[in-house]
Design goal:
4-stranded antiparallel sheet; 397 residues; single chain; 26 strands
Length: 397
């Protein structure tokens, strides 16, 4: 009897050990199958360096990188900062030494030093009621849009802030078929080879508009699925309804690629739509489609390899960056989380990459900052959601 019990116990333990071994082997196999090769990043908590003059940022709604990897941001200072609690030095009379709103446009070098600051109302142009988006063209000129009620134009400046051109008539009514003005522009991007600017037009209009970069003339435009754009209010987004036949406001980005595609952020519809540069619809991908309100598709940037293999998507409602395969629009991994600490986000709004592959993001609403995510090369990643990509011990930012 004792011998039988011992044998039975040994058999049971062997079965348990065998099951554990098989289970662990399956877990390892599943993990291996789940691993993907994708760009890896860590947040740089020391970038940028502190601003001078008691300056602070308001809602920060644009980021771009020039030919020397200098990072430009644009923010809304006085209109989004509270003089009682944030900018007491701006009050009349001042109620404290700190703080003051920084000028709207700030330029940082790759090390995070502030090297220039400018912007705001001036002679010869209409500064936006609510500036929105900043872009740098192939000549390092700066383009700025606006999403205020009277913002139906685009401004163009030199690298150092000298006014060059006002494109479109200001203070015009919403009209997605207009050829002489815009409707609250979100962002401008460039096809340098064709010398065309792509306008996400945007917060009032519901279209992509393509401009001649030299003259500013509107050459063509289109709405969702390549349809003629309509200004009809379709009401709130319903994730269970059929796909909307038109863009909802805002159309938040329209970024051309080197291989002749245009990726459009239809933000509140939770989708990326892809077109040819002529405006022919190619495909779409829904992202976090249960997201309501502000939507999930806020801004796009591409990896800097010649094939632009990877797409980086900022989701300001769910507070993360998606790393995607650009061709298939498959989400490979994601990083970030909601919060105030480095590597977390509060309304991550805009995204850009530099020549070395680093990512820069800005945050609007109460986020009010710019962050840098250091590129660590392409490698194996098993986590679908990486959370906060904090540097490991001993790893430099």
């Amino acid at each position: 009897m004792r011998r039988t019990r011992a044998v039975t116990t040994m058999v049971v333990w062997a079965a348990v050990v065998g099951a554990l071994f098989v289970g662990q082997s399956r877990l390892r196999a599943d993990a291996a199958r789940a691993a993907v090769d994708a760009p890896r990043f860590t947040v740089d908590p020391l970038w940028p360096k502190p601003l001078p003059n008691h300056w602070i940022l308001g809602s920060t709604i644009g980021v771009a990188v020039d030919s020397k990897d200098h990072v430009f941001i644009i923010h809304r200072g006085d209109s989004t900062l509270n003089q009682r609690t944030e900018t007491g030095a701006n009050a009349t009379p001042p109620i404290g030494e700190c703080c003051r709103s920084a000028p709207p446009v700030l330029e940082f070098d790759p090390q995070g030093n502030l090297v220039n600051a400018w912007g705001g109302p001036g002679q010869g142009y209409d500064w936006p009621e609510s500036n929105h988006g900043i872009s740098v063209d192939d000549k390092d000129n700066i383009w700025i849009g606006g999403n205020g009620r009277t913002d139906s134009h685009i401004l163009k400046f030199t690298h150092d802030g000298k006014f060059l051109q006002q494109i479109g008539l200001p203070k015009q009514a919403i009209n997605s078929k207009a050829t002489n003005h815009f409707g609250r522009v979100a962002k401008i991007s460039f096809d340098v080879k064709a010398q065309e600017a792509y306008v996400a037009d945007g917060y009032g209009n519901k279209r992509v508009a393509v401009l001649d970069m030299a003259t500013g003339a509107i050459k063509r435009f289109w709405g969702a699925y390549g349809n003629a754009p309509l200004d009809t209010n379709m009401g709130p987004y319903n994730p269970d309804a059929p796909p909307a036949p038109q863009f909802r406001n805002p159309v938040h980005c329209a970024d051309p690629t080197l291989d002749g595609m245009v990726y459009v952020c239809d933000r509140p519809n939770d989708r990326i739509q892809v077109f040819t540069t002529a405006g022919k619809f190619v495909k779409e991908q829904r992202i976090a489609p249960k997201t309501r309100g502000d939507g999930s598709v806020w801004d796009i940037a591409f990896s800097r390899d010649p094939q632009q293999k990877f797409l980086y998507l900022a989701d300001g409602k769910n507070e993360r960056i998606y790393v995607m395969d650009r061709q298939s629009l498959e989400i490979l991994t994601q990083f970030g989380d909601g919060g105030r600490q480095p590597g977390q986000f509060f309304a991550v709004h805009s995204i850009a990459t530099d020549s070395k592959g680093h990512i820069y993001t800005t945050e609007t609403y109460e986020g009010k900052r710019v962050q840098k995510f250091t590129y660590r090369g392409v490698g194996s990643i098993t986590a679908k959601d990486q959370g906060v990509v904090w540097p490991s011990r001993g790893q430099s930012p």
